[in-house]
Amino acid sequence: YSGWACAGTALKTVQAGKPDTFLEFYTVTNDAPYWYKVWWKDGCELKGGQTEAYASNPLMEENPGYTKCQEILIDNYKRCNNGGVGGNIQAGCLVYEFKAQRKE
User: Fold this and answer.
1) Which residues are within 8 A (CB) of 68 and not within 5 positions of it... i.e. 6 or more apart?
2) Which of 60, 91, 54 is nearest to 74 (CA)?
3) Can you give the residue ranges of every domain in the chain?
4) Is the CB of residue 90 less than 8 Å from the CB of residue 101?
5) What is the dihedral of CA 88, 63, 16, 11, to 10 degrees?
6) What pTM does this model have?
7) Cα–Cα distance measured from residue 66 to residue 54, given in angstroms and rounded to the nearest whole number
8) What single DSSP character describes residue 25?
9) What are the distances in angstroms from CA 60 to CA 47, 57, 65, 68, 98?
């Protein structure tokens, strides 16, 4: 479901201190919950003082490809060391999180 979680991430920025710009996708399939979030890490500062980034290109690469957000979430899953219950990974000032739990 990482593709659904990343849909439209090239169109809207995630901004420091503005939770309404943070991204969230949640679904339950076959009684298994999938909860994805992308948010700005509190206190994080980018070079040049930028306070926003696209989840589709958090490191501001020249040609990130259209699947960078999805690649980050999949990489987070592949690095999982807790039995698949979730975790997070940071790219620039954006935190990409997956939780295999019911929405709070």
Assistant:
1) 56, 57, 58, 61
2) 91
3) 2-99
4) no
5) -100
6) 0.86
7) 12
8) E
9) 11, 5, 11, 11, 22
Tell me the C-alpha distance between 34 and 56, whole Å.
20
Contact 92, 46 (CB under 8 A): yes
Per the CB < 8 A criterion, the answer to whether 12 and 70 are in contact is no
Strands (E), 4-92: 13-15, 23-29, 32-40, 52-54, 86-91
Over the stretch 46-93, which tens digit does the pLDDT of each residue have? Answer: 988 999 999 999 988 888 777 788 888 888 877 777 776 778 999 999
Helix boundaries (H) for 1-104? 2-5, 68-78
Backbone angles phi, psi at 78, to 5 degrees: -65, -30
Whose tokens are 């990343």? That residue is 6
